[in-house]
# Entry
Amino acid sequence: MTIPPHHPQSILVIDDDAALRRSIVAYLQDSGFQVHEADSGEAGLRQFDAARPDLVLTDLMMPGLDGLGVVTAIHARSPETPVVIISGNGSVSYAIETVRKGAWDYITKPIHDFAVLEQVIAKVNERAAELLTTRRRQEALEQTVADQGHRLQQMERLDPLTGLPMRQQLRELFDGFVRSADHACDLFIILMDLDNLKSVNKTLGHEAGDQLLVAVAERLRQHKPPTATVGRLGADHFVIMMTDCREVHTCIQALRQLLAPPFTLQGSELFITACLGVAVFPHDGESLDSLLQHANAALSQAKLLGSNRYAFYSSELGDRLRTRMTREAGLHRALERNEFFLEYQPKVLAKSSAICGMEALLRWQPFHQPELVSPADFIPILEETGMIVEVGRWVLETACRQFMAWQGLFRPLPQVSVNISAIQFNAGDLPATVARIIAQTGITPDCLCLELTESVVMQEIPQTMATLHDLQKLGVRLSIDDFGTGYASLNYLQRMPLSELKIDRSFVKELPQGKNALAIVQSVLSLATNLGLTVVAEGVETPEQAALLAAQGCHELQGFHFSRPLLPPQFLQLLSLQP
Ligand code: C2E
Ligand code: MG
Ligand code: MG
# Structure
């Protein structure tokens, strides 16, 4: 017998009848097979695992693991390996049972002519080859189905026209956000509807409409704010999901701006506008579907107003945004319109209540508006927009000029403190600006104190230390404002060229009763004494607080108990009353 090239080459023979086994083995070896043998079911399985033969011939009746056990075990390991049973004459029905359990065929004993083995092996080989072909075909088919499924899934996830994520993928991104986010930050869902798509479709045809959608998608993709995700919900609806709450107004403006340049379609220029509807997670809904529904309601509202409009699902958020945008626009013109001015709040010596300094506080009185806007409402806008750098320079200069104007009038020269925001501190040119203002106004550097917040100073980066040292070299005093609210590292603190710590007014407020607040005040005092710093308590409102702080050894006090922040004429009057 010759072995065809694709046919099995190694055969395992399992039989406890040594004589029969040997003659089978000898016959097969003569026929050119590589043969393994085993004298029990158990040994056969071990051989099978070690040698992985292409075919197994096994006796049916064996002590221990019999032929049926072998068939079952091999079928479980490797269903494609043919197993042929060698059964005694009396056990044919059992042999048939093994075929049901996975045996491929059976031969009955006694084997008079070993050629029968050849026939069985040939038959089994044919089936194995067939099976292999079928299996390959099946695998190819399965692969095709999987590919199609993947493509279908992709089609559900990505818009075929613009390549943007669609509802399914947006939902996954949304779920990811909800699972991962610290919900301190809102998620804005902005639905955008092009005002002109219908008329483009009508006048230029649907192909032009599609081109427009692709062009809009491209602009959105390229120019969206970095924290935004853009998707498409079919028709002319685009979705923008944004996680940064402070940037939503910028995002709305950016969206409108990115549509502003004309689109070129079929050789002609086209101006496109859009309406926007905004819903906010978790305020307006917990699921993406409900948020989209609400953003859609807001969108309808916006469209009622005309083209190029936007609306918030909840009016309260809309109002907040409008106020914010009006304020921002107002602040852009506030400097040139002279709408800023400074008030000065005295700092007094704790022992004598004599004025020893003053803090310049920025005020904004918008034109056409009866009331001042609180610093808490406009300073963050100045910071976010970077306008604080220019406004801060103005504050510094104005405060120094004011100080110089008063300096000649009274003998005990107070010093002037100016607040410096993080943005200003990190803007890079602060030491140069301070140096220039010192030169221009002629103020003695020692009379100028810069109030920095803990968070600014505690960024342990070499640049922070370098700026602090540059300022120190100019001779100005450096103070840490609102001390105790941040996370000052003592080790870092002692390496900084500071002059003063201002205990935050939230601690002073708890005095005299608050035990924790008192403990904090005491520890700040002992820390400051060790570092040779002046301690100022802010927000002193009652005589009891003033007395307690003085008794604890606080050096200077500031607060309504002594004086509110005052306009220059009133401050001057206060100074003139000083003994
Ligand atoms: P701050 O530097 O801690 O200023 C002290 C704040 O406490 C001032 O509020 C002052 O009016 C208020 N205050 C003083 N005494 C008392 C008191 O006894 N009780 C209470 N409840 N409050 C008292 P204001 O003027 O509203 O300023 C708030 C914050 O705005 C300032 O806190 C400062 O961080 C910032 N700010 C003010 N002016 C400027 C500025 O020119 N530049 C920068 N970057 N920030 C400024
Ligand atoms: Mg301050
Ligand atoms: Mg403060």
Observations:
- The longest helix spans residues 115-157.
- The chain has three domains: 10-134, 167-313, 325-576.
- The radius of gyration is 43 Å.
